[in-house]
Specification:
The complex is a heterodimer. Chain A is an alpha/beta fold. Chain A contains twelve helices and twelve strands. A five-stranded parallel beta sheet of chain B has the order 1-2-3-5-4, with helices on both faces. Chain B is globular, with a radius of gyration of 16 Å. The mean pLDDT of chain B is about 95.
């Protein structure tokens, strides 16, 4: 997914005079030199400030770095330089929750989507496939709004077209609805293969598709939300969608705990119960 | 662009009218000069220095009365708006909001944000002046911008440091020296002397490096 982003961003620089790219060392070599590519060194607050200044001058800034350094370290600059100034940018992170498991907690950022979602006015995309990343990124360039795109090494086997809330599998009337966000779709499909559930896919989590979720649940009452980042990040959105609809919600994701392990992404996925076996166990205990 | 509007507006107000405009903002007949540390710099910028295509970013959003008074004198902020300063529906708050306030190019109040935005704008070739305070320089984010702008020779950027010696731990050996080490042209002028300010702030067409003008005013 990351290599696809670098290919597409280089094309965007060549094709669209509005596009300007800001990096803080990470990704600098892959994007390469261009008059509108500004690498500010390891200075993430400046990265966001520069993006805001470019937007002030009518450019479409794309800022890119590792997840914790793009979102968490300069978070107040997202809030003020972009949000409060009402300036737009496309922020594209790499690293997700635990792609760099081996690098430890400093490089693991399961809180990122919650941190961005807390700020008003952001569109948040969590693509599950390189083709989705390309499409969502290209679609973000013409605007002047604030967009966060979260890339990950975890990818689904195939792309899902449409971008919005897509029902991939219907259950019997009243069956539980499992919503897979981004790269959780593959393990969700594996975990639900023998179960009478509906499965929906979601790559754009903000704004949240309240109406589509309600329509997909129809006469059902049970919702399972599987997010590849902090568990419950979108739970309040589900509550808003279903405020007139009695329901039960199981929100799966990375648990809210300091997690002191290295290793590999798949090991972390399994430890957090986000692989097929873990999701299957959770479904078994939640669904009667 | 707001500066072009200010130049086109051609009001009757001059520097001597600023005290009465400030009275409408604050209700005070007398003004503590320390709270108006930026007044002369702002006046000289808007009256003598800024051109139609230029941008000014006030990073030090604390104590914006002088800024609003100058914008009112230059016909950008409606004079009647001054009376409601800080009230619920006012366009003019204790820290400026660029979405609300006419003439304000940057929302500020949290210190250390303006220089980064100014750097981004200046990278496009835009001539940008950014005003910070000496205490504001305590924030490390400023130095990210100072270092980078110096390394890339961002000659379209001018930083004005209004220095009223209010930084808690001070700047031993001087603010200018720090900017110079990072590749800036830096000089200190009397922040109340309009001729000195004008001479220092006017654009230098031959500049190859960013400029830092330390405008020294009375200590708080």
């Amino acid at each position: 997914m990351r290599e696809r982003f670098y290919d597409v961003v280089r094309e965007a620089l060549d094709e669209d005079d509005r596009v300007a790219v800001v990096t803080a060392q990470i990704g600098n070599d892959s994007i390469g030199e261009h008059p509108r590519h500004f690498d500010v060194g390891i200075r993430e607050q400046l990265m966001i400030g520069v993006a805001a200044g470019l937007a002030l001058e009518g450019y479409r800034p794309v800022a890119h770095s590792y997840t914790p350094f793009l979102v968490e370290r300069p978070w107040e600059f997202l809030k003020l330089d972009l949000g409060h100034n009402d300036l737009g940018a496309v922020l594209v992170s790499t690293g997700a929750s635990y792609d760099a498991a081996r690098s430890g907690r400093t490089h693991q950022a399961p809180e990122d989507v919650a941190a961005v979602a807390m700020l008003p006015g952001w569109t948040i995309h969590v693509p599950g496939h390189p083709a989705e990343l390309e499409s969502l990124f290209r679609r973000s360039l013409p605007g002047d709004d604030r967009v966060y795109i979260r890339m990950s090494e975890e990818e689904n086997h195939a792309r899902v077209d449409g971008g919005g809330f897509t029902v991939l599998r219907h259950g019997s009337p009243g069956a539980p609805l499992v919503v897979a966000v981004g790269p959780t779709l593959t393990p969700v499909l594996q975990a639900t293969v023998d179960r009478d559930v509906a499965v929906a896919y979601l790559a754009t989590v903000r704004p949240f598709p309240h109406d589509a979720l309600r329509d997909a649940l129809a006469a059902g009452t049970d919702v399972v939300l599987v997010e590849p980042y902090l568990a419950g990040t979108s739970a309040a959105e589900v509550a808003v969608a279903l405020r007139e609809h009695p329901h039960r919600l199981l929100a799966l994701g990375v648990p809210h705990a300091e997690f002191r392990h290295y290793g590999t992404g798949p090991e972390h996925r399994a430890a957090h119960g986000l692989d097929a076996a873990g999701i299957s166990d959770s479904l078994r205990s939640f669904i009667p | 662009m707001w500066v072009a509007m200010a130049i086109a507006a051609k009001t009757e107000f001059g520097y001597d009218d600023l005290p009465s405009l400030l009275t409408r903002l604050t209700g005070d007949e007398k003004h503590d000069r320390s709270s108006l540390s930026t007044l002369d710099v702002l006046w000289v910028l808007y009256d003598r220095v800024l051109g139609e295509e230029d941008r000014f970013l006030l990073s030090k959003g604390h104590g914006p009365a002088a800024f609003y008074a100058v914008l009112a004198a230059k016909g950008i902020v409606p004079v009647d708006e001054l009376d409601g300063f800080g009230s619920f529906d006012s366009l003019l708050g204790y820290h400026p909001d660029r979405v609300l306030a006419p003439g304000v190019e940057l929302s500020s109040g949290s210190l250390g944000h303006g220089l980064g935005v100014a750097t981004g704008a200046a990278l496009t070739g835009r001539r940008v002046w950014c005003l910070v305070g000496d205490a504001e320089l305590d924030e490390g984010s400023n130095w990210e911008a100072v270092q980078y702008a110096g390394r890339v020779g961002l000659s379209s950027l001018t930083t004005i440091v209004v220095d009223n010696d209010s930084s808690e731990h001070g700047w031993p050996d001087g603010i200018e020296r720090r900017f110079m080490l990072e590749g800036w042209v830096a000089l200190r002028v009397d922040g109340r002397d309009h001729e000195a300010l004008e001479a220092a702030l006017l654009p230098d067409p031959d500049a190859t490096r960013p400029r830092c003008i330390v405008a020294e005013v009375e200590r708080q």
